[in-house]
Target: tRNA (guanine-N(7)-)-methyltransferase
Amino acid sequence: MTGEDSADIAHEASEVKEKNEAIEKNGSVSAVGEEPKAFIKGKRRSEQEAQVKAGKQKGQLPKKRFYRARAHSNPLSDCQFSVPTTPSEFDWSESFPEFFAQEETTGDKDLKVRFADIGCGFGGLIVQMSPLFPKTLMVGMELRDKVSEYVKERIVALREQHPGQYENISVLRTNAMKYLPNYFEKGQLTKMFFLFPDPHFKEKNHRRRIISTALLAEYAYIMAVGGILYTITDVQELGEWMKAHLDAHPLFHPLTDEELEKDVCVPLLINATEEGQKVERNGGSTYKAIYRRIAGLGNIGA
Model:
């Protein structure tokens, strides 16, 4: 056997060894010198995710799988994001550019957000309400970074797919339990939504619940008299908790059955939200508490 033959045999043995190692690691054979199939698949996924998030696939709705996040976040934790000191400091023109561009020509100086979906999740509610209230500015507020980014990309894609539509909705990443008065003036909102909030089952965590005596005072402050506050949950104990706190507050009064039947937003509490649709598919129960903001005695607190 010549030295050249020995070198060829050694080279072939090396290739076989590399192939066997690839099989053990990836469960499939990749050509020597090529990236393993599992790596290629992951690489393509990462490239696709980056492309979607970079907005390169214009007009396409974002994929939820690229925006995975925990079901809930701790609302009492300190997250790092900018917050205006007062409502007048916040520039809403970046959220609703089309409306504020029209403001310059029409002279309408009363462009204000009127609806707020607190803990908006993937934005299903504001997307469904947008064509029902085309002249009303509405915002979804979400604490989770990836989820709020998804809603932002979803709105961008919808605006590109349907020119002239969905210009009245936007999303903000913020902590609504801490900063609502930083964004909204007294009596500004006409509708507030709290759909399937975190139940915080442990008694020691009840202070984190989005409906409480202290927070209802804030909501009453930023809501207009006659405005409506909507809550819904699939947790009976939480539903009873929210109803009890609203019943105890002097500035909120429950809607009558007749009023509920006429309210176009009530069916959307389930139909327009991902969580509501899941509960309905599974045959679960829901518990609503829908109240109107009323004037206080002698208009104190109105």
